[in-house]
Amino acid sequence: MSAASSGSNAFSESTRLETKALAGLNCWACNTTQPQICPVVAKEDPQRDIWEEAGLFTFSYESAENAIPLCASCHVEFDLAIDPGYVFFPTDLKFFIDFEMEDRERRRIAAENGHPIRRQVPTAVQYRTHQQENGMISSDAICGLYRRVFLKNILHGGIFPDLVRSFATSKEWHGNPMASIRRAIAALGSSRFYVVVDPEIRSDLERLRNLYFGDETQNPESAHLRDIYKLDAQLDNKRHLEDQDDSGRAAKKMKDQETEHNINIVEGMGSTNQCLWDPDWVLGPDSTSNKVMQRYGPLFSSV
Ligand SMILES: [Zn+2]
Question: Where is this region: Disordered (predicted)?
Answer without folding.
Answer: 239-260
